[in-house]
């Protein structure tokens, strides 16, 4: 089983992760911290169930450019 997280970068530089199929949310100040926090959140959510074999982090980047 694989679960997917949508990752967005906050204006302050941190990251927010939202699972697309389960009610799992977490954050991290750095990418490395986010990865650790996602694994911990998934482990806690599935504490009494079979854990997913894969966790996919999908970074969503929204950029707005001014027209000229």
Describe the structure.
The chain is α+β, with helices and mostly antiparallel strands. The protein has one domain. It contains 1 helix and 4 strands. The chain has one helix at residues 31-45, and strands at 2-9, 15-19, 25-28, 54-60. A 4-stranded mixed beta sheet has the order 3-2-1-4, with helices on one face. The longest helix has 15 residues, at 31-45. The protein starts with a strand and ends in an 8-residue tail after the last strand. The relative contact order is 0.27.
Topology:
Elements: E1 2-9, E2 15-19, E3 25-28, H1 31-45, E4 54-60
Parallel strand pairs: 1-4
Antiparallel strand pairs: 1-2, 2-3
How do the helices and strands follow one another from N- to C-terminus? EEEHE
Structural class per helix/strand content?
alpha+beta
- Overall 3D shape: elongated
Query: How many domains, as an integer?
Result: 1
Helix content: 10-25%
C-alpha Rg, in Å?
A: 14 Å
Determine the strand fraction and express it as a percent band: 35-45%
For the secondary structure, the number of strands is 4
Amino- and carboxy-terminal Cα gap: 47 Å
The main sheet comes to: 4 strands, mixed
Keywords:
four-stranded mixed beta sheet, alpha+beta, 68 residues, 22% helix, elongated, 4 strands
């Amino acid at each position: 089983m694989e679960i997917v997280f949508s990752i967005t970068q906050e204006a302050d530089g941190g990251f927010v992760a939202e699972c697309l199929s389960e009610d799992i949310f977490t954050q991290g100040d750095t990418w490395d911290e986010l990865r650790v926090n996602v694994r911990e959140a998934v482990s806690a959510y599935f504490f009494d169930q079979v854990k997913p074999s894969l966790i996919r982090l999908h970074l969503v980047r929204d950029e707005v450019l001014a027209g000229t």
